[in-house]
Amino acid sequence: MTKKQQDTQSNHSQETSQNDIQQAIALFYDGKQAPKVSAKGEADLAEEIIAIAREHGVPLYENPELVRSLAQLDLGDEIPELLYRVIAEIIAFAYHIQGKTPEGFQPPPHTENNAP
């Protein structure tokens, strides 16, 4: 994984239910296009994907339902529009816990609530 890939790799999801077969999905997000499936696998391959994510400091997010939806996609596919909001929230949280902000992000001005 190159430094650029590490910086833009945003999310891994895993699941251990569904017949006790672990699954992992990795998404690549460049900030310009919809996130794409960059890796996916079950069992040993899932464990390897998760290990690589941990090795590179990529936050992990566990959500069995999301994994089932993403597992239907092929490598390189963009996530469907239906999942934009949930994936955006996960990416935003991943950025936050890593102390990152998206390029060009301007936080809203802080205002005091003067209501009585």
TrEMBL record:
Superkingdom of the organism of origin: Bacteria
Q: Where is this region: Disordered?
A: 1-21
Entry keywords, A to Z: Bacterial flagellum protein export, Cell projection, Cilium, Flagellum, Protein transport, Transport
Q: Does the keyword Magnesium apply?
A: no
One Pfam family hit: Bac_export_2
Positions with biased composition (Polar residues): 7-21
State a GO cellular component annotated for this protein.
Answer: plasma membrane
GO biological process: one example: protein secretion
Give the record's family classification.
Belongs to the type III secretion exporter family.
Q: Name the job this protein performs.
A: Required for formation of the rod structure in the basal body of the flagellar apparatus. Together with FliI and FliH, may constitute the export apparatus of flagellin.
Question: What is this protein's name?
Answer: Flagellar biosynthetic protein FlhB
Native source organism of the sequence: Hahella chejuensis (strain KCTC 2396)
Lineage per the UniProt record: Bacteria, Pseudomonadati, Pseudomonadota, Gammaproteobacteria, Oceanospirillales
